[in-house]
Amino acid sequence: MKTLIDSTNALIGGLAAIRRQFNVPEQFPAAVLAAAESAAKRAPTAHVDRTDRPFVTLDPATSRDLDQAFAIERSGNDLLLHYAIADVAWFVEDGDAIDREAWQRGTTLYLPDGKAGLYPPVLAEGAASLLPAVIRPAVIFTTRIDPDGHVHLDGAERAVIRSIAKLAYDGVRASDLPVDFDELARRIEAAEARRGASRVDPPEQEVEALGDGGYQLSFRPRLRAEDQNATLSLASNVAIADALLAAHTGLFRVMPEPDQLAVQRLRQTARALGLAWPEMETLAQFEKTLVPADSSQAAFMLAVRRASGGASYVPYREGVVPWHAPMAATYVHATAPLRRLADRYVVRAALAVANGQPVPSEISAAFEQLPAVMAKADARDGQIDRLVIDLAEALMLQGSEGTAFDAVVTDADEHGLRIQLCELPVVARVRGQGGKPGDKIRVRLTSADPLKHTVNFERAD
Fold first, then answer.
1. How far apart, in Å, are the Cα atoms of 210 and each of 207, 389, 395?
2. Residue 197 — pLDDT band, cuts 50, 70, 90?
């Protein structure tokens, strides 16, 4: 999703330049739109009827590409999470025009001024989206969660559903949600804590206009409903991953822990932001103490996300247990097929495995090809995200040329010093030597150019 909100439209010029630089598509080819219009009329005929089950969706208020709907029921001491995932494969056939375009895009791109979808809106925001009060085809994964938060995939089926409510993070009430929603989230979070997971979900940044014509970057408070909702996807993705691994197939999401150098940098970042990180405490332990509502702690969470070794996709390999370190689990992406190409294939494989059927050969072949395609898409997404933040930081600092700031050195190499400003969540570089990680220095802003997405500092001490 978006990492930055620009409700003031202050970034509009710089964002246009970023879109041009990365060839962000403005529209779909005519052949793809025509194929999508035809596909959207395809009636579900391989689906059981689950319209009597009270599914709801929970997303940002403006979202229309709704991948997931959920219902929860008791089974003795266990909870059953019925997680309905948009059945994109019902509308998109291997090798058709829609599919070929999706393989070119890889993911939906989110920018502050709008998105470039993976699929045409007639599908992503229409026929395939789990919108309320209409019948939609879905794949329902039923995950059993025991009192200790252990998960097991109980089954999967193609079904038609009718969501009874489109709930929004910023307005949802406890009475709107299934009775055991809080308990399910608590179980999953408790299990994460016992595994030593270090999953970090920093809040979004927002550009705010100041009265003097300037701008500042702030953090939008992350709502409890967002964190709870994330546990539903986490539970389903872990359960599906376990089932695929046991069946010796799948496409897994893996991610290493930040290496020793990255952790050393993060310790200096924490110092710059005024955070007390006890020397004997690991990064995972320290992360559990962070409060996103505190701007300094939110900035540190963002730094952790940037410092990781980067996530990637790997197909099943005999004798190898794929591992996602922040999740402390074997993990897949299966719950956002409207926004990620790989999910469509993982959903199809999991549906086959859960029903004792062989995974189609075309799915296994796709698992070998998808890592490179998704790596390219993820790299582009990451580059765009970083440039958007750079643009916002340059806009915020524009007009402050000549101002001196306190900073802490987080790294040093032959090119100069990497610094973290103490007063602002800004990371930059300063040319020259004469510093080591942990040193507190004084720097002066020499230029801030929003159009070039750059800020430059020099030593001022």
1. 10, 18, 12
2. confident
